[in-house]
Design a protein that fits this description.
Layout lengths: L2 E2 L2 H13 L4 E6 L5 H13 L2 E6 L19 H11 L3 E3 L3 H4 L18 H4 L3 H16 L2 E6 L3 H13 L4 E6 L21 H4 L2 H14 L5 H13 L4 E10 L12 E10 L2 E10 L2
Parallel strand pairs: 1-4, 2-3, 2-5, 3-4, 5-6
Antiparallel strand pairs: 7-8, 8-9
Helix pairs in contact: 2-3, 6-7, 9-10
The structure holds pantoate (PAF).
Pantoate binds next to strand 2 and helix 6.
Length: 282
Amino acid sequence: MRAITTIAQLRHELDTHRATGATVGFVPTMGYLHAGHQSLVRAAAAETDLVVVSIFVNPLQFAPDEDLESYPRDLDADTERCRAAGASLVFAPTVEEMYPQPVWTTVHVGVVSEALEGAARPTHFDGVATVVSKLFGIVGPCRAYFGEKDFQQLAIVTRLAADLSAPVEVVGCPTVRESDGLAMSSRNVYLTAEERPQAAAINQALRLGCDLIRSGERDRSAVEAAMRAHIEAQPAARVDYVVAVDSTSLRPTDRLSGSVRVLAAVRFGSARLIDNMGIEIS
Ligand code: PAF
């Protein structure tokens, strides 16, 4: 399978397929694909006729001190992984193709983008929302698949598609995990052999939080404190946040009720890892 590199060519290919009545599945990625990405491609392939995967390390979503230059890249291996998971097309544009001139138009999704990752990385979600809007405009009518691992991103993209009346149905897919529960992420390669087993504490803490809620705990601070203590028992862990919030607004309420999401962001050495889990209170 060859990678398409221009917007015009991708539009032409997709329009040609849509003219025959084919439905399009779209999986946006920044490459260095792992089993988590492949599960999105497989879900798209099961539900649509033609799957396109975009591979683009989007400079707009990296702050100057972040890992844009060192972000792992391997287009040949990615193309093979896409093919193996059932994709028909890979779209791998250059930065010049996507941003031929300075970007004056950016997309900001209010409320849901402000806390958590938005607070830790103030320019990140405008970069994500801008490139996703652009990709939705390039790909056109489709079902677009996003992982629940980046839960805040999923919430933002869902809202963006609705607010902008994009001809796109956003589909959230479950997080794929290593055998010890660590969420798969391209950034896991940054973990040292010493840090790697400790990183499993993130998922353990989230499960602990959900178990406490399931057993009747409704005090948000108590749930958050228990999750934090579990992660901080690992010597290499530096917690950025660990919270229990409303799953739509991602805002905290003192008493937990309804649909709750527990989310964490934790640094282990040079790796900053995120994970989350949902629980319904009836
Ligand atoms: O989740 C990612 O890999 C990126 O944020 C996305 C959605 C592909 C936009 O660059």
